[in-house]
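=== Structure Prediction Worksheet ===
Name of assembly: unnamed complex
Input type: mixed (protein and possibly other molecules)
Chain count: two
Listed entries:
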Amino acid sequence: MTDVSEHVASLQPIVWHEPRPSYDVVIVGGGGHGLATAYYLATRHGITNVAVVEADYIASGNTGRNTTIIRANYAIPEAIRFYKRSLELYEGLEAETGAAVFFRRKGHVWIAHTEMGMRTERARVLMNQAMGVETELLDPAGVKRLVPQIDLTGGGRYTVMGASHHVPAATARHDRVAWAFASGATSRGVHVIQHRPVTELLRDGERVVGVETAAGPIRAGIVLSAVGGRVSQLAGMARVRLPVRTHPLHAFVTNDFAQGLEKIVASTELACYVSQTERGQMLIGAEFDSQPSFSRISSFDALRSYAYKITRLLPFLREMRILRTWAGLCDISADFSPIMGETGVDGLLITTGWGTWGFKAIPAGGEAMAERIATGRTPVLIAPFGLDRFRNDLAMADQASAGTR
Amino acid sequence: MHELDCPRCGRRPLDEFTFGGERRAVPDWLTDPDERDVDEVWVFENPAGVATERWFHAAGCRRWLTVRRDTSADRVVEVR
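=== Predicted Assembly ===
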């Protein structure tokens, strides 16, 4: 444990610049993916004539609203390879940037309650091991050993049949991650422009040549949409049609509790997952609404239903109080995998479809998009995740790895 | 949105209903037949505003409803 003053000292300043009328690269969206792309453009490729244009303040969207879980235990090889890279970059992030992002390795216990669920976890373990990711299968006794607080009968209703245990899974402080990338990028000359909603895309013929904002246009050699939540609207400005629906996902924290829940505990079948924060709060994520919407309001009914399920699994949570609840907007793609790369419109790239798996992907997504922008070639790591995969019948179906539904 | 006003059953809690997806048309400006097929199969309009949707009253009259809903506030405008 590092002491608090050391964490404060490790907060690195973000340098604010006076905006220019034109840049080589304009990134729309000052969340994790936008800021990480800017950071890797500056550090890996020496491209610093870059602006990140954010409608609100940085990390005000899903980057500051997720449940901060970092893991690579996906079910399809392309996704495992990608998230494994992201995990590696996260592991080195504090050393590389000098910013404390509170990266803590915890392990992720993914519980199954049915034979069908166990089959999914068995397949996950085999696929992970084949790809060099450390994931092991647990029987109920093994689950109890790692998570002593668990009720293996699931309150007599959701029997624990076993789990997969992803050893290197971790959590990190989400806004710290955004600040680390923002300070690293801005100290090298990248501009971060807050409170500038993009209202239109500037076109020259078919090509996108910049963005229009309430405070005037910004010209760009290339525009990257790293927008979360309003991505269908932004892409629609260039008549790019997306297989994406936006659903709110709810999460909440309880009061502080003595440190004791070491693992991240998740159940897809109950659509919930819980981890303990550095402060001791229980951070609980739940399911997303079945109907798409842009509303961030959690209802009492929804909270009651999430609390009911998680307390069957971890009865000690009954003694806790829900302190705070919020929702993020998940852009869920039709095949439950992200979309990165070309849009089919010259001058406009996209990184989207990050609903429920965006935070863990920030470094690898940023690194790959920066390489795409700098070299003009799509890196092998993200090539399977292009928007054209839907047209080509190469959908990357991986719903079982979302952790919720 | 917590409840839906079913024309047959009255005001019922939302968990009695199943979301059946948005009702949408492929835009006229898409003229290439292949592009229209891709759009039909994969694309969501995903509007931040009023959407026309189908909902199934699974635990009630078991009929399909057409609901107009403002997605920006998750509020029902009209049920038919």
